[in-house]
Amino acid sequence: MAKYLCIRCGREFDESQLAVMMNVRCPYCGYKVIAKARSGEIKTIRAL
Ligand SMILES: [Zn+2]
């Protein structure tokens, strides 16, 4: 399962937690810019 990282508060969460929000945002602080962390690669995702 994909791991995500909030670039604002630094918390990690997974895909299922993201789905609960039905949006691309941090479930902890609500920040709309998160990073997708995949084995050694971090890709920033910015909500539209
Ligand atoms: Zn956050």
TrEMBL record:
<keyword id="KW-0240">DNA-directed RNA polymerase</keyword>
<protein>
    <recommendedName>
        <fullName>DNA-directed RNA polymerase subunit Rpo12</fullName>
        <ecNumber>2.7.7.6</ecNumber>
    </recommendedName>
</protein>
<comment type="function">
    <text>DNA-dependent RNA polymerase (RNAP) catalyzes the transcription of DNA into RNA using the four ribonucleoside triphosphates as substrates.</text>
</comment>
<keyword id="KW-0808">Transferase</keyword>
<keyword id="KW-0804">Transcription</keyword>
<dbReference type="GO" id="GO:0005737">
    <property type="term" value="C:cytoplasm"/>
</dbReference>
<dbReference type="GO" id="GO:0003899">
    <property type="term" value="F:DNA-directed RNA polymerase activity"/>
</dbReference>
<comment type="subunit">
    <text>Part of the RNA polymerase complex.</text>
</comment>
<dbReference type="InterPro" id="IPR029040">
    <property type="entry name" value="RPABC4/Spt4"/>
</dbReference>
<dbReference type="GO" id="GO:0006351">
    <property type="term" value="P:DNA-templated transcription"/>
</dbReference>
<keyword id="KW-0963">Cytoplasm</keyword>
<feature type="binding site">
    <location>
        <position position="26"/>
    </location>
    <ligand>
        <name>Zn(2+)</name>
    </ligand>
</feature>
<dbReference type="GO" id="GO:0008270">
    <property type="term" value="F:zinc ion binding"/>
</dbReference>
<dbReference type="GO" id="GO:0000428">
    <property type="term" value="C:DNA-directed RNA polymerase complex"/>
</dbReference>
<comment type="similarity">
    <text>Belongs to the archaeal Rpo12/eukaryotic RPC10 RNA polymerase subunit family.</text>
</comment>
<dbReference type="InterPro" id="IPR006591">
    <property type="entry name" value="RNAP_P/RPABC4"/>
</dbReference>
<keyword id="KW-0479">Metal-binding</keyword>
<keyword id="KW-0548">Nucleotidyltransferase</keyword>
<feature type="binding site">
    <location>
        <position position="9"/>
    </location>
    <ligand>
        <name>Zn(2+)</name>
    </ligand>
</feature>
<dbReference type="InterPro" id="IPR023464">
    <property type="entry name" value="Rpo12"/>
</dbReference>
<keyword id="KW-0862">Zinc</keyword>
<feature type="binding site">
    <location>
        <position position="29"/>
    </location>
    <ligand>
        <name>Zn(2+)</name>
    </ligand>
</feature>
